[in-house]
């Protein structure tokens, strides 16, 4: 059995951190003893090393999930019983919310207060929400004729492989686990190698909640090995992935080996439109929320801002000043800070590379030239704003995934919609106007899975989440997620006499 270690975080929270793979309700070392290390993005200090799964470990986790799926212990549970387990898990997450928030802040770099008040709060809500759905997953009767009874059953898919990203570690785990378990599936879930810790602590709560052995199995490891083994595994019935578009394409190809069901939530380059009749102060505030929250590390970040010509320069200046005054950069455990470090050295380097690319391609830098020196400790990137960009610039086309926003003007409603839709992505969008007719017309015309009107990023666990075009396939959250974790069986009953 793999050892749990006692850790004390920078905020003086002490807890027991599991370090093994969680298979069949036990923490175990990887078959070959492989490990991966995770560091504090604030000062690059080592936090811990945990077991890293290879293909053989994935085989063991999948076998555990398959056995659990076929077991009488899991199969005999009613929807109500599954709901009780999910609600109990929510209560345990609520009890240990300070620990979960501490782990995500320490491992990821996000401000602790955000991790506690937003991320972990949503973890608790998601488990309670799907606990309520578990006994309401129902089929329907279909009238055909007096000679036939037809009805449908919504049945679990089976063993589900789930791969979550590093930007919202515990929250993304809840998004995936909640509907899968409510529907009666079993799971093998893998966290990103940059943030392996909170999923392991959550696994200990899953066991404490009383889920039968093998229903949830947690593996850590690189995407190129553990993730690839999951995507191509012949005994996994469904794969759900959140991450980059290129990785999503690779997973889709691998999943074709046995025609797995798939849910993909991939990249985004979301537009935010500000019309000249908008409440400008609110537009500025929400534009800052839309791109600077979580240090810009959100797939739906509104990273392209389009402003009507008559208010363009006014908006740019107000947005610059608001960002200077309201982006407080520092340690994720400083209660005054709302902008921590990026998750990794690679992410920092990637963002600063785009800064140089934008300058080279002729965009006008408004804010962000004074970045920390390359040898400074921590993966910090200060907010970056460019204006006077155009559709052909790299930073307008590609997802940066950082506190990096590009601004350009538009003439009228048609021009705004054309520019908003001029992207291979279609995850989110935001529209700012006081004209309610325009707001709904523009929302309908934008090719995106979600559109905010006069806000940005204020999502909710009961609202479906997903994208158009290369932003993914399927929907998470809300009632819509249940269809991603069930398959429909039609039953025909002959009530008459055979011919």
Automatic annotation (TrEMBL):
Enzyme Commission identifier(s): 1.2.1.3
Pfam families: Aldedh
InterPro entries linked to this entry: Ald_DH/histidinol_DH, Ald_DH_C, Ald_DH_CS_GLU, Ald_DH_N, Aldehyde_DH_dom
Keyword list, A-Z: Oxidoreductase
Domain Aldehyde dehydrogenase: 34-491
Catalytic residues identified in the record: 265
Gene Ontology molecular function: aldehyde dehydrogenase (NAD+) activity
GO terms under biological process: carboxylic acid biosynthetic process; polyamine catabolic process
The UniProt record lists the keyword Oxidoreductase: yes
Gene3D superfamilies: Aldehyde Dehydrogenase, Chain A, domain 1, Aldehyde Dehydrogenase, Chain A, domain 2
Similarity section: Belongs to the aldehyde dehydrogenase family.
Protein name from the UniProt record: aldehyde dehydrogenase (NAD(+))
The species this protein was found in: Penicillium vulpinum
């Amino acid at each position: 059995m793999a050892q749990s270690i006692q850790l004390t975080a920078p905020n003086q929270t002490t807890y027991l951190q599991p370090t093994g793979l969680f298979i069949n309700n036990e923490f175990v070392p990887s078959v070959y003893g492989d490990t991966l290390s995770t560091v504090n993005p604030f000062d690059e200090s080592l936090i811990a090393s945990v077991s890293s799964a290879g293909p053989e470990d994935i085989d063991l986790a999948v076998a555990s999930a398959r056995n659990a799926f076929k077991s009488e212990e899991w199969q005999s549970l009613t929807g109500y019983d599954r709901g009780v387990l999910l609600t109990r898990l929510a209560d345990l997450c609520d009890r240990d919310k300070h620990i979960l928030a501490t782990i995500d802040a320490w491992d990821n770099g996000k401000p602790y207060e955000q991790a506690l008040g937003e991320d972990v709060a949503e973890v608790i809500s998601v488990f309670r929400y799907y606990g309520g759905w578990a006994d309401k997953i129902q089929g329907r009767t279909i009238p055909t004729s007096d000679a036939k009874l037809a009805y449908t059953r919504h049945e679990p898919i089976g063993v589900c492989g789930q791969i979550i990203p590093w930007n919202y570690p515990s929250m993304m785990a809840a998004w995936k686990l909640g509907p899968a378990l409510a529907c009666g599936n079993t799971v093998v879930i893998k966290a990103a190698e940059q943030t392996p810790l909170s999923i392991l602590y959550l696994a200990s709560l899953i066991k404490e909640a009383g889920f039968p052995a093998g229903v949830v199995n947690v593996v850590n490891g690189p995407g190129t090995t553990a993730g690839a083994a999951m995507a191509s595994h012949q005994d996994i019935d469904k794969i759900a992935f959140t991450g980059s578009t290129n990785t999503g394409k690779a997973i889709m190809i691998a999943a074709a080996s046995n025609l797995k069901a798939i849910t993909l939530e991939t990249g985004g380059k979301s537009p935010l439109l500000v019309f000249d009749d908008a409440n400008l102060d609110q537009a500025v505030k929400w534009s800052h929320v839309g791109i600077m929250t979580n240090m810009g590390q959100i797939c739906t970040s509104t990273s392209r801002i389009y402003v009507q010509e008559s208010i363009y320069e006014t908006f740019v200046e107000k947005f610059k000043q608001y960002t200077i005054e309201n982006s407080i950069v520092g340690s994720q455990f400083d209660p005054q800070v709302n902008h921590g470090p990026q998750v990794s050295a690679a992410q920092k380097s990637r963002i600063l590379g785009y800064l140089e690319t934008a300058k080279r391609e002729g965009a006008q830098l408004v804010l962000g030239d004074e970045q920390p020196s390359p040898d400074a400790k921590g993966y910090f990137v200060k907010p970056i704003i460019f204006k006077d960009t155009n559709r052909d610039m790299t930073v307008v086309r590609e997802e940066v995934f950082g506190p990096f926003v590009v601004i350009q003007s538009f003439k009228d409603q048609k021009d705004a919609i054309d520019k908003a839709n001029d992207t291979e992505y279609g995850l989110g969008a935001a529209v700012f106007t006081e004209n309610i007719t325009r707001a709904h017309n523009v929302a309908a015309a934008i090719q995106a899975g979600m559109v905010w009107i006069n806000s940005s990023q204020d999502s909710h666990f009961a609202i479906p989440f997903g994208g158009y075009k290369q932003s993914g396939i399927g929907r998470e959250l809300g009632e819509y997620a249940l269809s991603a974790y069930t398959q429909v069986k039609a039953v025909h009953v002959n009530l008459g006499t055979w011919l």
